[in-house]
């Protein structure tokens, strides 16, 4: 079963799984939203956990590959009075012209997308030169003991449940494409906030 089928089955019940963790992620989401401006794309909006934190003066566009998740996000946006456009779309195939956005946001997405390298190329493509990419992601820990005793067992469970890969090194992948301006490692590197720029054209 693909990750899209698993998330579709969960629908809004996904919030019961991830919701308890939000007290840990809430301050990081708020901080991530502070780097956002202009015309913004959120890649993998899910049920819309990031929506309450966005500034109201941005032009927000959001995509997700799972229609059931996207519909939950759309309802949340209406409840918040947030003006946003939603699209059923995969991160690996963003149906936007080159250099369409001032800011791109990804929160806990690159642990799930089947082809993170291709998805990162797409983020790079649709971001304007000099634009900002903001990543809040699960990553492999800096501590080997944590990887073996915590992340590997969690990886088996979440892999079965959601096709999540908690041991990906998204922080290293970001560095291959963008100029990192700011990086924070939390919980021994299990979660990282990365703010990066697409280089301006020479």
N-C termini distance: 45 Å
Radius of gyration: 16 Å
CATH architecture: 3-Layer(aba) Sandwich
CATH class bucket: Alpha Beta
Number of helices: 7
- How much strand content do the residues show? 15-25%
Which shape, going by the Cα principal axes?
globular
Structural class, from secondary structure content?
Answer: alpha/beta
What strand line-up does the widest sheet have? 3-2-1-4-5-7-6
CATH homologous superfamily name?
Vaccinia Virus protein VP39
Summarize this structure as a short list of keywords or feature phrases:
25% strand, alpha/beta, seven-stranded mixed beta sheet, 38% helix, 202 residues
Secondary structure topology:
Layout: H1 3-10, H2 14-18, H3 22-33, E1 39-43, E2 59-64, H4 67-80, E3 84-88, E4 101-107, H5 116-126, E5 127-138, H6 144-162, H7 170-177, E6 179-186, E7 191-197
If you had to describe this structure to a student in words, what would you say it looks like?
By secondary structure, the chain is α/β, with parallel strands linked by helices. The protein is built from seven helices and seven strands. The chain has helices at 3-10, 14-18, 22-33, 67-80, 116-126, 144-162, 170-177; strands at 39-43, 59-64, 84-88, 101-107, 127-138, 179-186, 191-197. The chain has a seven-stranded mixed sheet, sandwiched between helices. The longest helix has 19 residues, at 144-162. The protein is globular and about 45 Å long. The N and C termini lie far apart (45 Å). Mean pLDDT is 83; it is low at 16-20 and 148-162.
């Amino acid at each position: 079963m693909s990750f899209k089928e698993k998330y579709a089955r969960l629908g809004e019940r996904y919030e019961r799984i991830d919701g308890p963790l939000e007290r840990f992620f809430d301050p990081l989401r708020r901080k991530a939203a502070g780097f956002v401006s202009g015309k913004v794309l959120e890649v993998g909006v899910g049920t819309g956990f990031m929506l309450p934190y966005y500034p109201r003066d941005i032009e927000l566009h959001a995509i997700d590959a799972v229609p059931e998740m996207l519909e939950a996000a759309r309802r949340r946006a209406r409840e918040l009075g947030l003006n946003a456009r939603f699209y059923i779309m995969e991160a690996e195939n963003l149906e936007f012209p080159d250099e369409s956005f001032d800011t791109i946001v990804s929160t806990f997405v690159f642990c799930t997308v089947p082809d993170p390298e291709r998805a990162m190329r797409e983020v790079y493509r649709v971001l304007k030169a000099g634009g900002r990419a903001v990543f809040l992601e699960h990553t492999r820990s800096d501590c080997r003991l944590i990887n073996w005793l915590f992340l590997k067992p969690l990886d088996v469970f979440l892999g079965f449940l959601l096709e999540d890969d908690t041991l990906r090194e998204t922080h290293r992948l970001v560095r291959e494409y963008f100029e990192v301006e700011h990086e924070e490692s939390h919980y021994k590197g299990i979660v990282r906030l990365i703010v990066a720029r697409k280089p301006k054209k020479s």
